[in-house]
Amino acid sequence: MPIGGFVLHVQPERREDVLEEISRFPDLTVYGYDDKGQVVIVLESETSEEMEKRVDSLLSIEGVITCDLAYLHGEDEVEKIERGEYVPKIRFGRKPES
Amino acid sequence: MALTRREFLKRTAALTAASFAGIKLPFTLEKEAQAADADRWVRGTCRFCGVGCRVELGLKNGRPVAIRGVPESRTNFGYLCMKGMLFYQLMTHPDRLKKPLYRANKKDKFREISWKEALDIAASQFAEAVKKHGSDSVAYYGSGQALTEETYIFQKVMRAGLQTNNVEGNPRLCMASAVGGYITSFGADEPIGSYADIEKANCFFIIGSNMAEAHPVLFRRVMRRKLDNPQDVTVINADPRVSPTSRIADIHLQFKPGTDLALLNAMAYVIIEEKLYDDNFIKNYCTFRVGKEKKEVSFEDYKKFVSAYTPEKAAEICGGNITPDIIRKVARIFATSPATMSFWTMGINQRIRGVWANNLIHNLHLLTGQLCRPGADSFSLTGQPNACGGVREGGGLCHILPGHRLVKIDKLRHEVEDLWGVPRGRIPAKPGYHTVAMFSAVNEGKIKAIWINCTSPAQSLPNCDKYRQGLAREDVFVVVTDVFPTKTTELANLILPTAFHFEKTGVYGCTERRSQLTLKAIDPPGEAKPEVWIVREWALKLSEKLNDPVIKKCVEPFLGLEEGYELPKAIWDEYTQKLTAGRDNDLRGATYEVLKQLPDGVQWPAPTKEWALKGGTYKKFVRGLDPLADKHAVDEKPYQFYGPAHKDHKLWIWLRPYKGPAEEPDAEYPFYLSTGRVIDHWHTSSMTGRIKELMRANPYAYVEINPKDAQRLGIHPGDMVLVETRRGRNILPAKVYEGPMEGMVFVYWHDMHEDRMINRVTKDAFDPGSKEPEFKICACRIKRLSGPKPLKPYIVTM
What angle do helix axes B689-696 and A48-59 make, rounded to 10 degrees? Predict the structure, then answer.
């Protein structure tokens, strides 16, 4: 199960609302925040793709501007892919250019 | 109490993120825990977009397990985006191409063959074509995702070996107009400034770019600048579609697609009328130009030209929310801000007048002197990780040779021939086919063998059905080098499996003139090989089959070198030490040794190691900051515009009239259709939960429709909608959204399903200067077909 460390950048005036909203997210831990609207979170998910969807959900919250990844640990994800237990979507073969 | 392994990893993740944000957490990690996450970290560059984020791939027992950002990097300061990082999952993906595959006829099934046989077939087919039909019957089509070493070696073998300039690449589809704009306005390709200007800018003018999604990590810097200085920084976002980028905008300018040339000229009108221009900057550094002959005219002539673009007239042309007052307001902010930085990308480039649109943005900077100072720049964003480094600098288009040299200039061509040690006259004097012309030539049977590397034109060309017909011809031999099956491998005769990111070594040059090295971390799977090895071995066989020692000469310096590091290093050395020496993109100081020492590579010009070790040149053309500005100085002025295309050492302000798109809506096709790259992840709160879920989990393309249009046409969220143009049709689920303006629909172009491949309907009209197609605009009609239907994702498999 992958683990990701992120910094959410939120509009400072909406920080409390955002903290309230994300407290309802499962497998999300808030580790700290500041007055500039930066919130340090850790997400856990079944797969990295699932984590991407979590990030998309976070981005849909009013007041969240960006959700930037700092560290991602896949744990046993690659082994699962190697064993054929998990087949991720292909996006680099080939995403449209530009 | 001892931490569990999982708790330890969570803390590592949190501490890494907190350290980037400058937030202190109430714990640290003990030393013994530090190696538990990975036993080796290998440094490289993200391949998702053109920003050039530095990243480290963590390995445990030789297997990729983790990713982390590089905090010392001046591109991303450690931050990454989730979408970019998913590449690591694909390294061991079961669908990876692992063996050479061949079929003589395109209707047959592929069979696995050996590398020896594969290279022999590839060489025979190209050699046969050259013998029977001449050098211009073969072609190479490459990619802004290929490493510089790859593009360089491919084009060397094509030009000096096979004697054709039929060397193209997908940056033609995204960056060519920006190249044309920089060369015609500034005399030299690529931006003058750097990302570092973001932290010094007071006005951001973002036009035709959804930075928040397409360049998220760079957008973070713009966002931070705005949020940290809300009163002193203004963000203007100009786009027919409201996108996530608008979230931090003070002003969103929404206009009819393709009318921005009028808007930009009207901004210049206001700058002139209200005397907001910088007279000294214009007198010292600028001339005014008009027409194909680049005729010099006076400032008075320019004023007269611009007088036709009153804000009133422009507002009428632009529609949307554009009023004369908002044009005046925006022009004043642009001109009077202490430092203005413009950003744009495909909304400006993918147009039949993309070069002009680029020129008109540059004009605003030249008139107001918003250039060369800290925070002031006219900055084109790049879509792909190595469109700049590999293709624009490395000679990856039909009209350019490595080191920003034009094919058509004898002196420059001979310089390259001499540097390569091949006879003069070996490189043809005539540029080859540009992208649309190349695939038209395939359609017409003029090209008999084409090598497509690391890209999928069968999906990414506009009006792609037309060009797929040519690739499907039995008398056209198609070689594809790639990591996965694609729409293009479906049309191939020979598929050669290649090493993926971090499975080979090489350089990417990002948007801000920055070259960065990615080191090989693991071996490629199966029999996949790095492209540089493939080209070298292929060239040797070609040399034999054509009995032409000059082809062998092209790869002679690289014979016998180990392919994972020594071979790309030798290619990079040849390219930088010989081909960039004395050029404006001088990279002689940026050796692999230097690139390995620096966390974030080197910005050219970097003529010496000493300069490169300082990071290179943050701002071109400024004396004291750019060593070439001192070297090429013609007077005492602080700025020296030594770009190779402007012998007068001036910046050119262009008289470019308004011109609309190639195809405008009419009674039959009443909507504008526009397209975009990155899958939207932004949802409006008004969406129903069902649709929200549908979209969130959705790998499909959909069509965005303005709510007013949707209501008028009885289209509800999720309904299946027919999108039809004069070229073809798509059937897509609807997203009803206040994104596109009324009268316009928008489709992302990532979906490979035949029903949802939007380039089957886009138009292949192109800019007469840059030859870049107008992906962004065409006319369509839409119709509700049915209620929501379950869709299946479509992935090409062998």
Answer: 140
Contact indicator for A74, A2 with CB cutoff of 8 Å = yes
User: Do B19 and B79 touch, CB atoms closer than 8 A?
Assistant: no
Instruction: Please tell me the CATH code under which domain B671-786 is placed.
Output: 2.40.40.20
State residue B794's pLDDT score: 67
User: Hey, are the CB atoms on A33 and B23 less than 8 Å from each other?
Assistant: yes
CATH says B176-381+651-655 is which class? alpha beta
E strands, B367-513, are 377-380, 400-401, 405-406, 449-453, 477-482, 494-497, 506-509
Q: What is the CATH number of the domain that holds A20?
A: 3.30.70.920
Nearest Cα residue in chain B from A71 = B68
Residue A46 sits at the chain B interface (C-beta within 8 Å): no
The tens digit of pLDDT for each residue in B217-258 reads 999 999 999 999 999 999 999 999 998 899 899 999 999 999
Identify the pLDDT of residue B249. Answer: 96
Interface test with B, best of A38, A42, A47, A95 (most B CBs within 10 A): A95
Q: Which residues of chain B have pLDDT under 70?
A: 1-2, 31-35, 678-699, 793-798
User: ipTM of this model?
Assistant: 0.95
Q: Which of B58, B65, B459 sits opposite A96 (nearest CB)?
A: B459
Cβ atoms B239, B347 nearer than 8 A: yes
Q: State yes or no: is B384 an active-site residue.
A: yes
Q: Domain map of chain B by residue range?
A: 5-90, 101-169+395-579, 176-381+651-655, 671-786
